[in-house]
Amino acid sequence: MSNDSRFTRRHFMRFCATTAVLAAGADPGAFAESDARLRRYERVKLVDERDRPITAATLKVGENYLFYYPYVATPCFLLNLGKATTAASLQTEDGQVYQWNGGVGPHRSVVAFSAICAHKMSHPAREVSFINYRHQPATFVDAHDNTAQRGQVIYCCSEKSVYDPVNGARVLGGPAKQPLTAIVLEQDKDGALHAIGTVGGEMYDKFFERFSSRLSLEFRTNDIRKLVTGAATVKPLVAYCRNQILC
């Protein structure tokens, strides 16, 4: 499918949604491009390297898993936190309030977030990753400039931003001004996991502008904005990235 046809399809769908909102007398701004609420992309099945469906039971608690969504060059973390999550009301840097509905799976412990740091967009690359999930306790400086120690955090060692995946990737410390973009997951009747969209503040346009040359080389494509369709392969971060920086 060409870029033009994808563009037309997505904007046609947004036009239809806006028309429905107008008919109901609601605010058409709810479907604006910058809206922090649910943005639907392609519904994509998560699979392992042998094309077997990923379920909550197949994910090891505490393991860093990586997949690409909603674009072929935008990395995401998939995590089984091993504990229940609850919904959270969060806010983007520009003040948009949105709702994160928690994880999926039998214990609502499976979550997914963009692996692009909300500060300077550090992200996993094949050679090195400065951002990763830390299941075991890690030490950091919290939002009140106090030394804190806790596990189950996403830690970016580039600038020391720390996020809480149990609570929608809320910022716990460091210079980041908003949570990580959340990837919205669905579980079908057989337990297979699907990514369906995002919620929260997106940084994809800035990400592509800043890293376009390197991404094109790494992914061997000029179409780094191509949407993922059908299925996305999930693999442990250690199987993708040669070096993980821990701090």
Class of the largest domain in CATH?
A: Mainly Beta
From the alpha-carbon coordinates, what is the Rg to the nearest angstrom? Answer: 18 Å
Global shape: globular
- Span between N and C termini? 42 Å
Total of domains: 2
- Strand and helix order: HEEEEEEEEEEEEEEHEEH
Protein traits:
247 residues; alpha+beta; Rieske Iron-sulfur Protein; 4-stranded mixed beta sheet; 4-stranded antiparallel beta sheet; 2 domains; globular; 3 helices
Question: How does this model look, in words?
Answer:
It is a single chain. Helix content is 17%, strand content 30%. It is of the alpha+beta class. The chain folds into two domains: 1-32; 39-240, Rieske Iron-sulfur Protein (3-layer Sandwich), CATH 2.102.10.10. Strands 13-14-1-15 form a four-stranded mixed β-sheet, with no helix packed on it. Strands 6-3-2-16 form a four-stranded antiparallel β-sheet. A four-stranded antiparallel β-sheet has the order 7-10-11-12, with no helix packed on it. Strand 11 and strand 12 (170-173) form a beta hairpin.
Write the layout of secondary structure elements.
Elements: H1 3-23, E1 39-47, E2 65-68, E3 75-80, E4 88-91, E5 97-100, E6 110-114, E7 131-134, E8 138-141, E9 147-150, E10 153-156, E11 161-164, E12 170-173, E13 182-187, E14 193-199, H2 204-219, E15 231-233, E16 235-236, H3 237-240
Parallel strand pairs: 1-15
Antiparallel strand pairs: 1-14, 2-3, 2-16, 3-6, 4-5, 7-10, 8-9, 10-11, 11-12, 13-14
